[in-house]
Amino acid sequence: MFYHAYEHYLESAFPYDELRPLTCDGQDTWGSFSLTLIDALDTLLILGNVSEFQRVVTVLQEGVDFDIDVNASVFETNIRVVGGLLSAHLLSKKAGIEVEVGWPCSGPLLRMAEEAARKLLPAFQTPTGMPYGTVNLLHGVNPGETPVTCTAGIGTFIVEFATLSHLTGDPVFEDVARKALKALWKNRSDIGLVGNHIDVVTAKWVAQDAGIGAGVDSYFEYLVKGAILLQDKELMSMFLEYNKAIKNYTKFDDWYLWVQMYKGTVSMPVFQSLEAYWPGLQSLIGDVDNAMRTFLNYYTVWKQFGGLPEFYNIPQGYTVDKREGYPLRPELIESAMYLYRATRDPTLLELGRDAVESIEKISKVDCGFATIKDLRDHRLDNRMESFFLAETVKYLYLLFDPDNFIHNDGSDFDVVITPYGECVLNAGGYIFNTEAHPIDPAALHCCRKRKEEQWEVEDLMREFYSLKKNKKFTLKQASEHDEGESTKDATDASSGGEKRNSKKSSHSLLSCPSQSFNSKLAVLGQVFLDNT
C-alpha cells in the first residue's frame, strides 16, 4: 500500500505537496514544501528502506525553501514539517547517513526544522501568548489576520518545540509552547472544560463547544505526550484535571459527546472520526479498560461503513449530512496499535485487517489511494492527504510488526559521543507527535550544557549499563533495594546524582526494568489474571 501511493506521488505529483490520485497530478495544500515527501520520510525507515531515506534527505536539503511568500497554517506546518524533519534528523544515524560531528545537537535536517519553526514564531506574539492560526512565511502575521484560533492550534507545539529547544540550546521554542498551553489552562471554564475556538488577542471563547474531537483533540494529546517526553508532572496534572471534567460532563455509555463548556449541557450528540485517538491516549496513562470499551464502540461504526465517517450521530446510529466522508484518517488504527501493545487482544488485529481490506477495496485507484467522499456509496474525492503515508500506513505496519525498532523495550541502544559527553539513543520509548513522527526522548538529554544535567546523563548511562549487564533485574529486586547486585548498581548510580543535587529524586524515572502488562497492574495493588 505504501509503495503504491508513494511511487505515484513521486511520478505524478512531486514537488507539489500532495497527490491528486484521480487525475494523476499534484497540488500544493499546506504551503509549498513537497509535504508528502517530508511526511513519508520516517515511514520509509520504519519499513526498512534505508537507501530511499538517504536519497530523500538529499533531495529535501537541496530543494526545500522556507523563504517563500506563502500563507501557512501554523499548526499544520509544525506537526508535519517541523515534526517530520526533527524525527528524520534523530533517525539519520540509524538510516546509515554519515552524520556531522556534534550530531544529534547539529545537522542539516535539524537546521531545516529550526528554520521552519522560526518562521512560525511571529504568530506567538500576541497579548495572551496564544498563537494566530496562520502566518506568512516571508512577512509574518498578515495585518488583517483573524485572531480566532482553535484550541488544538494553540496547544499542539510542546512536543516539537521542546525537542527543538533541547537540541539547539535555544529556549525560545519551548517557552512559547508552554506559555500557549498555560494560557488555555488559565481560560478553562469553572467546570474545567475548554471550548473549540478562542480569540487569541482578548482570550474570549468564540466557539463554546467542549469535547475531545476536532479543534480540541491534540491539545489533550500533547499534555500527555509532553508530560512523558519531558517527565513533567505539571503537564500531566493538567491533563488529569481535564480528564475528570471530560468524564463528568461529556462521557455517556463509553461514548463522548459535545457539551456547552460553561454549563455542561449536551450540544451535539455526535462522534467525530478525529476522536478515535482517545483510546490510544487513555492507554498511555494506563486506563486500558475504559480505552478498550470506547475503542469497541468506535469499531462498531467502522464495521457499519467500512471506515469512520467524519461525523456520526450516536442516537440515530447514522452519518451526519455533509459529513459522510472518510479521508483515510489514522486515528482508530493508531489507538489499535497502542492498545495492542498494552493488551495483545486479537480484536485489535482484526480492526487492522478490516482497515487494510476496506482501504484496498474502496479507495485504491491506479494512481494511489483516494479520499472517500461518501461512505454510503463509496464515491471518491481527488485527494490523497499526506497523513495517509505519514500515519495511516505507518500505524498499520507497526500494529502488525511487533519486532520493529520503534517497539524497542530498552534492551538495545546506541551510545553516541557528543560535545557534552556520552549519550544514549534509540533505546525505544519513542513519542509520536500528532502526525505520527517518532521523537526519541533520550535525544533531549544529549545536548545539555549545564553541569548538573551532564551528571544526570552520566548517571542514566550507568543505570543503563548495570541493567544491561544484569538481565535478571526483576520487579521484586527493584522494590527490595537491599537485594541483588544489579539493584545496588542502579541505586549507586542514582544516589551519585543525589549527592550532587539534593533536589533530584534518588531513583531515576528511566531506570525501571521492562515489565509485563499484568505485573504493571499488580504493582497498582490489584492482580488481574489473563482470563478476566
UniProtKB/TrEMBL annotation:
Keywords from the UniProt entry: Calcium, Endoplasmic reticulum, Glycoprotein, Glycosidase, Hydrolase, Metal-binding, Unfolded protein response
Binding site for Ca(2+): 434
GO cellular component annotations of the record: endoplasmic reticulum quality control compartment; membrane
Subcellular location(s) per record: Endoplasmic reticulum
Region annotated Disordered, chain positions: 476-511
Active site: 76, 217, 310, 331
Biased composition (Basic and acidic residues): 478-491
Role of this protein: Involved in the endoplasmic reticulum-associated degradation (ERAD) pathway that targets misfolded glycoproteins for degradation in an N-glycan-dependent manner. May initiate ERAD by promoting the first mannose trimming step of ERAD substrates, from Man9GlcNAc2 to Man8GlcNAc2. Seems to recognize and bind to exposed hydrophobic regions in target proteins.
The name this protein goes by in its record: alpha-1,2-Mannosidase
